[in-house]
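tokens incoming
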């Protein structure tokens, strides 16, 4: 049984899971939002390892160690920038969740904490992002029922948390 849930908080502040997911950009060299918070909390070694990854395409995922963060790994995924929904945004966001979880499985990671990918700087509407996030995580868990103990979203504001929690309540 995999627990799927939400929590309000800062994803860097305490141990939530074996791996936290960073909503990164294609350079993987840091930025604002949750990306900035993760780099600040992890320390400069994280950036040094990121420099060796040669970036990451939108919809794909990469992984590093977590250094000073209270988890073992950081998984980086690059969400789509919202351009009105006609530029394959939904497919790319689906691919972010799927590739992040596939990478976690390759590394034997049994718990994963996601932020709300793409809904900050990249402007993806929260309701639509939450639908994709929850559908995709549920699909991966159905395909791999033994793989994960827990998958959660650590959400930074009450409104975003309410939207994701509402999606999770739908069957
Ligand atoms: N813990 C959890 N969630 C957070 C935190 C935190 N510490 N900080 C912000 N959020 P964003 P994106 C929430 O902008 O839209 C960066 O510059 C935030 O409130 O971090 O995918 C990257 O380098 C929002 O709900 O990511 C890219 O250039 C969510 O995390 C770009 O932003 C995502 O917001 C990626 O944009």
């Amino acid at each position: 049984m995999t627990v799927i849930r939400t929590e309000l908080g800062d994803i860097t502040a305490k141990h939530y899971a074996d791996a936290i997911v960073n909503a990164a950009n294609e350079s993987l060299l840091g930025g604002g939002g949750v990306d900035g918070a993760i780099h600040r909390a992890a320390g400069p070694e994280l950036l040094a390892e990121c420099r060796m990854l040669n970036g990451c395409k939108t919809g794909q995922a990469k992984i590093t160690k977590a250094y000073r963060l209270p988890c073992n790994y950081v998984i980086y995924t690059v969400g789509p920038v919202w351009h009105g929904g006609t530029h394959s945004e939904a497919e790319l966001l689906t691919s972010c969740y799927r590739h992040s979880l596939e990478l976690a499985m390759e590394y034997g990671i049994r718990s994963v904490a996601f932020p709300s990918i793409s809904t900050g700087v990249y402007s993806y509407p929260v309701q639509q992002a939450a639908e994709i996030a929850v559908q995709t995580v549920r699909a991966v868990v159905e395909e791999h029922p033994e793989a994960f103990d827990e998958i959660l979203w650590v959400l930074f504001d009450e409104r975003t948390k309410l939207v994701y929690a509402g999606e999770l309540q739908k069957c």
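note: The mean pLDDT is 98.
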